[in-house]
Amino acid sequence: MGEVRESSYAPFDVSDYLDSEEVIAELLTAAMEASEPGILLAVLAAVAKARCLGGGP
């Protein structure tokens, strides 16, 4: 097996890009159309974080 290297990329956080009501609405619409309920839950968490409702970091 190959050597495992540590990534130098910053972690991606979608909440950093939820900067308007239009973007949030589009993301929520796409999540509701997805067949996987976990996607909607992840999007709701990201929206809460973007709006500082999550109480977390």
Quick one: overall form? extended
Would you report the number of β strands?
0
Summed up, the helix count is 2
Strand content: under 5%
Helicity level: 40-55%
Which consecutive residue ranges, at least 5 long each, have pLDDT under 50? none
- What is the string of helix and strand elements? HH
Sheet/helix structural class: mainly alpha
**Distance between termini?**
36 Å
Mean pLDDT: 88
What's the alpha carbon Rg, rounded to whole Å? 15 Å
Biggest sheet, in brief? none
Short description:
This protein is mainly α. 47% of the residues lie in helices and 0% in strands.
Describe what you observe in this structure:
This protein has a domain at about 15-50. α1 runs antiparallel to α2. The chain is mainly α and about 55 residues long. About 45% of the residues lie in helices and about 0% in strands.
Salient structural properties:
single chain, extended, 57 residues, mainly alpha
List the helices and strands and how they pair.
Blueprint: H1 21-33, H2 37-50
Helix pairs in contact: 1-2
